[in-house]
Each structure stands twice: as C-alpha cells, then as structure tokens.
Write a structure and sequence with these properties.
Largest sheet: 4 strands, antiparallel
Number of strands: 7
Shape: globular
CATH topology of one domain: Alpha-Beta Plaits
Strand order of the largest sheet: 5-6-4-7
Strand content: 5-15%
Structural class: alpha+beta
CATH class of one domain: Alpha Beta
Distance between the termini: 35 Å
C-alpha cells in the first residue's frame, strides 16, 4: 500500500521543483537503466517518467535534444524506437558515476597541479570548452589563463587537451604552496577560488530537503512506484550538487564542510529504496518486452566509508 505521508512529500517536491525532462532522463538512465542494460524502448522511457508528470511529448523532445548533443543514438525497429548511449555518452556516464558515487574526499599529498592555456592561440569556442572541462576536472581559475587544483593522477589534463585538439597550447606544471608572511597561500584562497560558499549552501538545502525522509528511512512505508520516484528525485537533486563539487581534499576544506553529511544521507535513502525502485523499473521492462542484457560490470553504488 502506498504511504500517504510519503505521497504528500513527493507531491510537494514535484510541484515545487518539477524536473526538466532531459535532465530527468539522464538521472533515470544513470540510476535505473545503465547499471543493467544497454538500451531501452522509447515506450519504456515514457512509463519510467510518467510518475513525474512528464508527458510523452516532453520525453520525445528531451531524448531528441540529448541525442543531438551526442549522448544517445536511436535505432528504429519497425514502428518502435530504441535508444542507447553513444560511445562518448558511455564515457561521460562513467565519469559522472565516479563523481556522484565515490566518497566525497580524495587523498592528497600536499602538492598542487597547474595548467597554463595559451588563450590567444585558440578560438573562442575552444576557450569556452577548455574552461568548462578544467572546471569539471576540479581546477579553479587563478588568472586569465592559469588554472590550479590539488594534484591528482587521473590524466584529465592530457585527455582534455587531446579531445579539444589544443595540446600545443597547454602547459602543465607542478606547484607547492609557498605563501609566507603577508603573502596569501593557495590554501587560503580555496573558498573564493572554487566558490565554496555557494556550493555549501546547495549541500545544506539538499540535506534540509531530504533529511526528514532519511531520518525515517528504516521504517519507510513506500510502494514500488513511490520508492522509485523518491530514489530518482533524491539522485536528481544530489547529482546536481555533487557534479558541481570540485572534490577537494579534506585538508583544505572548512571543518564543517557538509559534503560528507549529504553523501551519507543520499547513501541511506538510496539503499532504503533499492528493492522497491528496482521492482517498479523491472515491471516496466517486462511490460515493454525489454530484452535483458545484464552487464558484467558492477552497478555504481555508494561506499560505506567517507
């Protein structure tokens, strides 16, 4: 039986912050589809998004826009359409999985990694893209063409430079914090450089939004559809905050940084809704004659320790 209290909560959430179709498709695909199958019928997407008051026209428009952006590709099978991720879409989802499900803090040896981009040697479109890609990789802008982050060994600078074909305009270097006396340290500029005050406020809003439901997660009385809707709304909201997080080391963050609390809250509700959400999605896949191609790789999941 559906929970009346949870129904009111979900109704309030959908009315106050209705998700856009294209963004919701990404959330549903990442959490309910990608872990177990490579492609789905468009009719399955219609059914998966219908509890969110997203109509078929909005789903068609949303998936079309995502396909035009290179995330999905369509295959016509008779009068039906089947969608799957493109190769670049698979890569993008894999990167996002790590950003969302991995622990909120990374290990750090105290070194910094810097990039200088020859902005005058590349076009305006490439300048915009390289700033976006470096920001996604956790770099902050410390000057017109200088970007820094706590050092990581993830090969992101090389990948970005090669994918944008600007390798000859990019110089990477290692740095260490040498601020002395009245000279500001890199560490002291963390809040400003990464706009952390705004990000912290978004984490706090997420915690306030789902904290009450999470507190009663152990006794959550939800039917399968409610569990699915709650799980997707949770991940939709968490994804929007977490993907903006540069994932800085704990050492340079404020002592009361809320990322760990948000992570544990998301983990708790994600696990509490697992069986119900899976049952709802599986019923739709059976209803739409979805072939089951279970993937060898493990589903992305939250870890126990942060």
């Amino acid at each position: 039986m559906p929970s009346t209290a949870l129904a009111r909560f979900l109704r309030r959430e959908l009315d106050s912050d209705p998700p856009r179709a294209s963004s919701l498709i990404v959330t549903v695909w990442g959490d309910a589809i990608a872990p177990s199958r490579d492609a789905v019928w468009l009719s399955s997407l219609f059914r998966l998004l219908s509890p969110f008051d997203v109509n078929e026209r909005a789903v068609r428009t949303g998936i079309y826009r995502l396909a035009r952006s290179g995330w999905f590709e369509a295959q016509a099978v008779g009068r039906r359409s089947r969608y799957r991720l493109t190769s670049s879409g698979v890569e993008g989802f894999e990167q996002a999985f790590h950003r969302v499900y991995d622990p909120p803090f990374v290990r750090w040896d105290g070194r910094w990694q810097g990039v200088i981009v020859g902005m005058d040697t590349i076009g305006p479109a490439a300048r915009k893209r390289v700033r976006e890609e470096l920001s996604w990789a956790g770099f902050a802008r410390f000057g017109p063409a200088i970007f820094l982050r706590p050092a990581r060994r993830d090969g992101s600078v090389e990948r970005i430079a090669e994918s944008l074909h600007i390798a000859q305009s990019v110089t990477a270097f290692a740095a260490h914090d040498n601020g002395q006396g009245s000279i500001a340290t890199l560490r002291s500029r963390t809040m400003e450089a990464w706009a952390l005050a705004s990000l912290a406020a978004d984490y706090q809003r997420f915690i306030a939004r789902f904290g009450g439901v999470a507190a009663s997660a152990s006794s959550l009385d939800a039917d399968a559809e409610q569990a699915f809707v709650l799980r997707m709304l949770l991940m939709h909201a968490y994804r929007r905050v977490r993907l903006r997080d540069p994932q800085l080391p704990r050492d340079i963050l404020p002592a009361d940084w809320p990322a760990a609390r948000a992570y544990m809250l998301a983990r708790k509700l994600h696990r509490a809704t697992r069986s119900g959400a899976a049952a709802f999605a599986d019923a739709i896949f059976v209803e739409n004659d979805e072939p089951v191609h279970r993937k060898a790789r493990a589903s992305p999941r939250f870890v126990d320790r942060v």
